[in-house]
Design brief:
The chain is built from 15 helices and ten strands. The protein has about 350 residues and is α+β, with helices and mostly antiparallel strands. A four-stranded antiparallel sheet has the order 1-2-4-3, with helices on one face. Strands 5-8-10-9 form a four-stranded antiparallel sheet, with helices on both faces. The two termini are about 25 Å apart. About 50% of the residues are buried. About 5% of the residues have low confidence.
């Protein structure tokens, strides 16, 4: 999972207990390892278009559906929404879809600038956006180096706090795109946790939501490598298994009480929670929120920090309204909610080949 959520199925408790030992995921399948290695290969010093697209697709995205299409335009690349890969139950207004476009755009811009291209975004909106790739002085740096390493780490963290300087560095990355990053820690996290639990409960009581989620789960490395998308079970701390068995166990063990308990454990083990608020509640604002998140996630990675989304607090309208009140946002829409802390890395989600997302 990326922007959307994480999953837990039968055996998750044993898997999560082994995370600290770093042992349970060493047996990842050869197809998965090969795909992951190809995905995160270094960007050539003189990248072709497909090389830049590969780095763009390393951006976060909802349910790892990768709802984007790339095409060459004069002096750059266009990124358009791919509505065939939308998730209408969890994301009925396509908010997460457009935020996903922003994540891809930001990774593309940073990678392009590191290789002597301008990486400037023009006007963004419902049709997507265009990234200019004109010659420019190279701008290498920590964010670029973090692109292949960034992940949504869906595990328990070590509970240590962030320093005020660390929080400020992360907030500054969101401000680059005019997005407010609201930080909550300590006792205030419990108030957001209540909204996450309430939102998760509503979603799991909705059979359509559960069915949509199940369709995007990839139960083993071979399946994940074959599709190049979806929510790879191991990335959420779950044991891998044949797809047919996984579907049966999902139906048998995916329960809201155990899911809520895990969310509580994961959030309470984190240093705190960020909520991102874009200046407008429209596709342009949602794209800006995605760009801001991607910068923050890359900065966090460069700082040795982990993060993971807890978006149930904004996916359900009632919980989103409560979060607006809690954060005193008036008419502003909270876009993305994610926790931050310290933890070992997890297996990563895969991506489709660049050729598959190019028009």
């Amino acid at each position: 999972m990326e922007i959307g959520r994480r999953i837990f199925i039968g055996g998750a408790v044993a898997g999560a207990a082994a995370i600290g030992a770093g042992l349970w995921w060493r047996g990842l399948s050869a197809p998965y390892v090969a795909a992951a290695d190809h995905l995160t290969a270094p960007l050539p010093s003189r990248p072709e278009t497909l090389d830049l697209v590969r780095f763009a697709t390393l951006g976060a995205n909802g349910h790892n559906t990768q709802p984007w299409r790339f095409s060459k335009v004069a002096d750059g690349l266009a990124i358009a929404p791919d509505f065939s890969r939308r998730t209408p139950v969890v994301d009925p207004d396509d908010h997460h879809l457009y935020a996903s476009l922003g994540c891809a755009a930001e990774s593309l811009c940073i990678a392009a600038r590191a290789r002597g291209l301008s990486g400037e975004v023009g006007e963004a909106g419902a049709e997507g956006l265009i990234v200019a790739l004109l010659p420019a002085p190279p701008e290498d740096g920590a964010l670029f180096n973090a692109i292949p390493e960034r992940q949504c780490t869906r595990s328990a963290y070590d509970g240590t706090r962030l320093t005020s300087e660390e929080v400020s560095l992360l907030e500054a990355e969101a401000n680059v795109h005019g997005v407010a990053a609201i930080w909550r820690e300590g006792a205030e996290v419990e108030l957001i946790l209540d909204l996450v639990i309430a939102g998760n409960t509503r979603q799991m009581d909705n059979p359509a939501f559960v069915a949509e989620l199940k369709e995007w789960i990839r139960f083993n490395g071979a399946q994940a490598a074959r599709t190049g998308d979806g929510l790879y079970a191991a990335a959420s701390g779950n044991p891998t298994m044949p797809e047919a068995v996984g579907r049966i166990l999902f139906d048998a063990f995916f329960r809201k009480d155990s899911e809520n308990d895990k969310y509580a454990d994961h959030i309470r083990s984190s240093a705190g929670i960020f909520t991102l608020v874009a200046p407008s509640n429209d596709p342009a604002g949602w794209i800006a929120a995605g760009r801001a998140y991607q910068r923050m996630a890359l900065r966090a990675t460069a700082m040795g920090l982990r993060n993971a989304f807890v978006n149930q607090a904004v996916e359900e309208p009632a919980m989103r309204a409560d979060l607006v009140s809690l954060l005193d946002l008036n008419e502003m829409r909270p876009n993305l909610v994610f926790r931050v802390g310290r933890a070992p890395p997890m297996p990563r989600s895969l991506r489709r080949l660049p050729e598959a997302v190019m028009d």
